[in-house]
Input
Amino acid sequence: MIEGPTLWGLIPLFVFVLLAFMKYHPVVALLIATISGAILTGSGLVTMAFQIEEGLGEFLAYIGLLIMAGGGLGKITEKTGVAKYIVKAVVYKIGIDTQNKALLGAMASTVILSGALGTFTGASAIIMPVVMPIMANLRISSSSIAIIFQGAGITGLLLGPFTPPMVTFMEVTELSYWQILLYGSLPVSLVMWIVTFIFIKIINPRTIKNFSYTEEDLVESGMEKNDYSENNKIVKQTTIAFLITMIALIIYGILIQGGSSFAIVIIISTAIVTGLVGRLNTKELAETFFEGAQPLIWLFFQFILFTPFINFIEELGGFEAVADLMLPIIESGGNFLLTMLAAITGAVGIPGAAVAQTVILDEVFGDIFYNAGVPISIWVLVLIIGSQMTEFLYPLGDTLGAMGIARSRDLRTMIFFGVVMTVLVVSFLALRSLFV
Output
């Protein structure tokens, strides 16, 4: 048993990071790391079982439930035709006749659906059949579409009022949605949008030769412009019901300051209304909802395990030892160095689900920032950048998912884009920190 506080208390975190980069399944990596924490603290299996039980009632377990519910809602919007109708409404209303309009239409659709469904991979899968023939006709490469799905998709998660990342930011910082939006989400999203668009304009001429869509792709998608005008009344009615229900509940949730706990009400209520108006019977509605939630069950288990994982590190004094180690750095380098160190540590050194990364960053650096007197606006930026840039920096699940949906094999360009995005967003944080 290790006596804390000591940096040896971070062994479970290092085990998790190592196994994650060795391509272990995230749940397996976290379970092994949690067991190592139990061993180091001298805890038995019964203590670990109690910790897992405690995890069922913690905030991260709720986020896992929220993500599964979002998957269920996404499946219902897909089955009722709502999601594609929204995408086509956005894309064709813009009047797509140039590459720039096509790119902006695809980016706007990705942001809207990602923000509404709480998942950019699910949104991308819905958007792809609609935009593929347009991209093929306008000579836009699959590399560019994969970049749009990741670059614009993550901004949707940062802007939606009740997406899992936003709910986590509100819970951790105890700030309102509008404060998170003003301090961090909006400026970071703006930077990411600009970088994404400019990067595509630069690389598309270079990638179209080797990564263009084929005639088979155009025919296979089966989506033409007139398909938008021929949507039947049921789909239109269902889309209107979906939008009215979600927007009304979001506004209501903000007005009553429902916070993170109200998000599940929005998702489930919207799913029920959308399914019923879309003429799904109650059995079909339930089966479709759970079909969408099923692939995300592993995240729920991962978030439950994060509670004992973090508790064991705290018991070993790992986070406290980091705080003690940071004190001389803060005194010599000031708040700027602390800010950059925290953001880079999150982006480079803590893999895993973004919401879990946010919680770990808060555990490691939250009190340090508070005691150092760093403005909350900077802390919000650190949480956003430290938790979201990892997916750009490393080709992990969501990155590969975006490539797969876009039918892109261009991993090299995707990695290059991720590095450029990370460097520029972190540079934005550095500039912002200098003017505090």
Remarks:
- Residues 219-230 have pLDDT under 50 and may be disordered.
